[in-house]
Structure formats: C-alpha cells, structure tokens
Amino acid sequence: MTTKEMVYAALFAALISVFALIPPIPLGFIPVPITVQTLGVMIAGGFLGKKVGGIALLLFLVLVAIGLPVLPGGRAGLSVLVGPTGGYLLSWPIAAFCIGYATEKVWSRLKLWKMILINIVFGVLLINLIGAPFMAWVTNTSVWAGLVGGVAFLPGDCIKAVIAAIIIWQLKAISPIEVKANQ
C-alpha cells in the first residue's frame, strides 16, 4: 500500500467520523438510528476503489473498537460492534469493497445511472441484508421482523446512494481509480 493510499484511507475514515456530528434520527420501532455515515461508505467505495475503500472502513471500525467517539451520539467501543447496530457497522467494509470492485469494473464506461445502481445494490441492499439479520439475532427477534424493520432505512439510503453517485461522478477526474486506469 502506497503512502498516498494510506492517506486517502485515513482521510475517508476521518470524513465518515465527521458525518457522526450530524445527529442520528432514532426510530421508535427499531434500535438502529438513521445516520448520514452510510453516505460516506458509498463515497469511499466509489471514489477510492475496492482496496483503499475497504481499508478506510476497516480503519474506521478500528477507531470504533478502540473507543473513539466516531459514531453519532459519541458512541464507541466493542459493545457497539456486538449490539443491534453491529451488523450494519461490520457490513461497511464489505459494502465499500463491493462498491469499489463494481465501480472499477465499469470505470472506463461509468455513467451516473450505473453509479447509482452500484450504490443501491451494494450500499443500500447489501448493508441492510447483513445488518438487519444481525440486529434480529442480537435483539432475539425473527429475521423477517429485522428485515421488515430495516425497510425504514430504504428511502433515505436510496437518496444517499444518489447523492454519493453524484459526488463520485463530479470527482471522477481526481479519483485514485482514474490514476490506476491510466497506468
């Protein structure tokens, strides 16, 4: 890993941490709040690519695990990673990697609609398909109830997927993926 890639990973871990300053929206029927941080996950994967995007989110999880207050409400620690939100958080490096992988595959012919589709499939659906069953398991409810409760995230997450795609599209010329593609 180059120094430049390490800096990008650290910067995006910091960016996602800054998104924690935007207050979460608690839902009364599910123990997981709506946050803006998934926007950062999608941007990291689409802008940085699979390797650096995934590493950026792994670094973010390390920050959570060691107790730095990088989640909304200042939450942190290993207890968060094994609580109801743990599945969602643990899915973030996987989602960033998959978004980055898919983006790299279509980079030379990337269109805005493709980026939106990639973000919806890997940034919205994948995160919810990993996070909701984990939440159901931790809260001792049925997986079906977890998935149904997770539906509350879909409208906001789809909006974040579009916003992330637009940001990635606008920054395409300076993306590290572009540099790799030209080498």
From TrEMBL:
Family the UniProt entry places it in: Belongs to the BioY family.
Membrane topology classification: Multi-pass membrane protein
Organism expressing this protein natively: Paenibacillus nuruki
Bilayer-crossing regions: 30-48, 55-74, 86-103, 115-137, 143-169
Keyword terms, alphabetized: Cell membrane, Membrane, Transmembrane, Transmembrane helix, Transport
Family annotation (InterPro entries): BioY (IPR003784)
Xref: Pfam families: BioY
GO CC entries: plasma membrane
Name of the protein this chain belongs to: Biotin transporter
Protein origin, superkingdom: Bacteria
Cellular compartment(s): Cell membrane
GO molecular-function terms, A-Z: biotin transmembrane transporter activity
